[in-house]
Amino acid sequence: MSDTTSRALSGTTDEKRALRAGLIGLGMMGRHHARNLQALEGVDLVAVADAFGDPHGAAPDHDVLPDVEALIAAGIDYAVVAVPTQFHRDVAMTLAEAGVHCIVEKPLAFDVSEAEEIATAFEDAGLVGAVGYIERYNPALQEMRRRIADGQLGEIYQIVTRRQGGFPARIADVGVVKDLATHDLDLTAWVAQSPFADVAATSTRRSGRRDEDMVSITGRLEDGTITNHLVNWLSPFKERVTVVTGEKGALIADTVNADLTFHTNAEATTNLWESMASFRGVSEGDSITYSIQRREPLATEHEAFRDAICGDTSNIVTMREGLHTVRTVEAVLESAQDRSVVHLDGSALGG
Description:
Number of helices: 9
Number of strands: 15
Strand content: 25-35%
Helix content: 25-40%
Domain GFO/IDH/MocA-like oxidoreductase: 142-251
Radius of gyration: 21 Å
Structural class: alpha/beta
Strand order of the largest sheet: 14-13-12-11-7-10-9-8-15
Keywords: NAD
CATH superfamily of the largest domain: Dihydrodipicolinate Reductase, domain 2
Protein name: Dehydrogenase
Pfam families: GFO_IDH_MocA, GFO_IDH_MocA_C3
Domain Gfo/Idh/MocA-like oxidoreductase N-terminal: 20-133
CATH architecture of the largest domain: 2-Layer Sandwich
Largest sheet: 9 strands, mixed
Order of helices and strands: HEHEEHEHEHEHEHEEEEEEEHHE
Shape: globular
CATH class of the largest domain: Alpha Beta
């Protein structure tokens, strides 16, 4: 932990000064980080950096610094890294060497070797490192995860996600797997609290770009849960749905509207005589759409990382988890290319 962070966390609550935050990358995602950092209680956004300036006017009260070294020189406690994926490794490693906590926009790195290097560097330095998987902080998925942990679905059988929509002109360096499917692979392992063990994928290119723009993924988690993920940016409608099916029913999260619905398996509690006790049927039961407090997911993500620096790491996406997701993403791309089932070592999943 840096000396500046130690000073920020010492003393009584009234004596603690605000954490000094820095942001590198002021593009499409960076501008939203800037807005949230400037509104975050207990944090001061003291410096921003981007080699191309501030095209969206996200931080009009700040001089735009040229690079991460200048950001560190401003005396920051932690940094938000929102540069293109290809630069994640160099920026994150520089921050680790300087003793600065950081949250890196998803995915953690461009490939597994870079992700391993970053995660290890932050762990060895005793720094808080996280990955910005904003979907985890959608109120519908946060509530879904809480209810599953409380046993509402009983044993989990299957997790299905659908992430479809129009083409994002901002994406130029990766395909739909690294840009969008990475969200589904992360949130699936998190919801089930089990890493991926196997994946099989099929992808295609229809937009004339180098990278894939449509993928279908079938997976199996280490706990035996089977999964399916349909992802593309070629659909004329937007869909963000996660369906978790278990022995007691199914939870459906619509993260576009932050809605969560529960469909009860009406036969789950049927009393059966001994010879039939091993057979549990399924039939349509009651359904309910829950009333959820709808907060901006990015605001919740920033609060979780601030709290992690102050000692509560319970609600962040750790870099070790981010490494496992990068490994799963690469397995998906390998499977699609080779038309094979790829087996993963899930030991990288932590938290």
